[in-house]
Amino acid sequence: MKPRVLVTGASGFVGSRLIEVLEQRSDWQIRALVHRPSSGVRLSHLKVETLCGDICDPEFVARAMQDVDAVVHLAYQNQPTRAGQSNATVQGTRVLATNARQMGVSHFVHISTLGVFSYRPRGPIEESAKLHLCGDAYCDDKIRAERWVSKVWKDESGYTILRFANVYGPYSPPWVIRILNYLKTGRPVRVGDGQQAFSLLYVDNAVQGILAALQKPPRNAVYHLCDAIPSVSTYMETLASWLPDTRPLVLPLESYRKLNSWRSKTKVELTELRTFLIAPETKVWLFRLLEFPLLLQRMLWVLNHLPAGLRQTLRSKILGMSKKRKLPDSGTGPQPTDVSGAWDGRLFIDAGLYHLLASNVRFESTKAQQELGFCPVVSLQEGLELTRQWCEWAGLLETPRQ
User: Fold this and answer.
1) How many Å from the N-terminal Cα to the C-terminal Cα in the chain?
2) What is the pLDDT of residue 73?
3) Closest CA to 389 of 219, 208, 230, 170
4) Residue among 346, 92, 56, 362 nearest 200 (CA)
5) Is the Cβ–Cβ distance between 56 and 81 less than 8 Å?
6) Which residue has the higher pLDDT, 73 or 269?
C-alpha cells in the first residue's frame, strides 16, 4: 500500500503546486489540508482527499493525522495575531508536531524561511547560525515554530526543516504579483543601485526540494534552499521589461535610512490610511456597513476623530466627487522616490520589503545538495520565462488605464 502524505497549507502558492506534482506521481497517497473550502480552487480538479479545518484544533488535527506516514507543513498565518487569537504559525505548528510524534508519523517536513534571520541579516549565513528574535511578527513566529519542531523531536529523529529563499513563479503573491503592482503604480522596487544579492527559489525547485527531503530518512537537520542569486536590479528590471513603458523606480539610500524614524513611520501610517480611503473597494465596503448597525456606530465614532482632510477625502470618495490626480512625469530615467513624497497616496511603504531588498546576503544550498540530493530542475532564465507566460495568461501585464 502506498504511503500517505498530509500537506498543510495545501491551497497556498507552494502547497498547491506541491499537490499538483504529487498527484501526477504514483508513489504517494495525498491528503490535502486547507483552512476554508473557498481557498482550494486550484485543488478542485485534482483527485486528492481534501480536509478543511483549523490546524490549531487538536481534535481536528488528530483526525487528519489518521494513517499518515509523512507530513509536509506549509501552513502559516500571514496576518498578525490579535490578543487572545490562536497563532497558526506557532500554535498550529506545535499542535501538528505534537500529534505527528504521538501518532507515529515517520517524517515531519517543516517548511520555514530564510526570514528567520530577519529582513536585514548579516552574512554569510549557514544553517548552523543562531536565531535571534528581531521584533518582526512573521520572522519571529517562524523562529518559534522551528523551535517547537525541534523541541518535540529532541529525543529522536523525526523532522527535516527546509528554509526557502524568496519563492517566485506563477501565482507568487510576494515576488511576482506584488512587484508587478508596485511597478504599475510607481512605487520603488529597489534600494540604492540595486546591486544587492537577491536569493531566489523557483516554485518547482522548491517542490523538488520537498520531494528530495521526503525520500531521505529524517535526521533532525535544517537545510537552506536557493537556486539563483541575481542582483535585485536584474530581477526587477526583468519584471519591468514585461510591462510597456515601465522602469523600476529607486528608493534612495538616504530615504531608506529614514524608514525606522518615528517621524517617517507616522507619515507612512497616514499614507497607508489615505491609500485605503481612496481604494475602489472602500466604497463598496462602506455601504455594506449599513447591514450592521452596531459596527456602523463604532465606525462613525472613528470617522469623527479622523483629521479633517482625511474625512473630506472619504466623503468625496463615497459621493463620487473625487478628482483624479496625475502622477508627476518621471523623466527619461529611473527617478528617486522619497518616502515622504507619496504620489497620489499610492506610495505604500512596506519597511520589511525594503529592508530585505537593501540587504546583501547570499544564501547557498550546498548542504541540501550534498545530503538531500537537491538539484534545481528549472534555471533562472527558464523560471522567469515561465513566469512571464503565466502573467500574460493571467492578464497581469496590462498597464492601468490613465
Assistant:
1) 59
2) 98
3) 170
4) 362
5) no
6) 73
